[in-house]
Amino acid sequence: GAGVSQTPSNKVTEKGKYVELRCDPISGHTALYWYRQSLGQGPEFLIYFQGTGAADDSGLPNDRFFAVRPEGSVSTLKIQRTERGDSAVYLCASSLIGLAGTSPTQETQYFGPGTRLLVL
Amino acid sequence: SQQGEEDPQALSIQEGENATMNCSYKTSINNLQWYRQNSGRGLVHLILIRSNEREKHSGRLRVTLDTSKKSSSLLITASRAADTASYFCATDVRGGGSARQLTFGSGTQLTVLP
Which residues of B touch A41 (CB under 8 A)? Predict the structure, then answer.
């Protein structure tokens, strides 16, 4: 089936504005993850959903960042009062389940193409 | 600091040669995964190796894991120009409630020259 999709692919906004980034996980995947990647760096974890609930939001940098997954499928990452330092590629991933120690197929995280956010 | 750190940061080889990239990490892990990324966009999953495994193969890829040294290596045999990309290792850390986040290193930029 289709992979993880993210929209928009690119977003340019002005400092102080509000943005929403959307992620459509692979159908049937219960676990969903958001990461942020700055230029020349590896992705950094932001938040992990198991079903509808945020199981781990320890990577969110501050309270301007919020994410929801109301029906356990599509997720939206919301950034308020954007700052230039928020500019990065925001990556979404999903896995069949979110429990460790099951099987590689179930644990593997599949990534979307990312949304490149530029805050001017 | 990053859990996984790749070495070298950049590697340039001729087509047909083998490429070896290394990854070191700090804490106990459930598994370690290798990803490839082209042009700074989506990551492609290559291979997952569990903490109780020592070696895995997938096509031209060979991954080893040494938990006593907290290190892993990715070997790409008979490289092709299309293998040019950034390669990241990512660790899935053991324990800690719902710890399902992957922790990535800064990556190795591989360039395969035709």
Answer: 106-107
CB contact under 8 A, B2 and A42: yes
Computed over every residue of chain B, the mean pLDDT equals: 88
pLDDT classification of A3: cutoffs 50, 70, 90 = very high
Tens of pLDDT, residue by residue over B54-102, are 999 999 999 999 999 999 999 999 999 999 999 999 998 765 444 468 8
pLDDT in tens, A77-105: 999 999 999 999 999 999 987 655 566 66
Amino acid, single-letter form, for residue A18 = Y
Q: Which chain B residue shows the shortest CA-CA distance from A33? A: B101
Distance CA A49, CA A54 (A): 4
C-alpha distance from residue A59 to each of A106, B64, B107 (Å)? 23, 29, 20
Please write down the HEC assignment for all residues of chain A: CCCCEEECCEEEECCCCCEEEEEECCCCCCEEEEEEECCCCCCEEEEEEECCEEEECCCCCCCCEEEECCCCCCEEEEECCCCHHHCEEEEEEEECCCCCCCCHHHHCCEECCCEEEEEC
Give the residue among B68, B42, B52 at the shortest CA–CA distance from A100: B52
Rounded-to-integer distance, Cα B84 and Cα A61, Å: 32
Which of B46, B92, B98 would you mutate first to test chain A, the one with the most A CBs within 10 A? B98
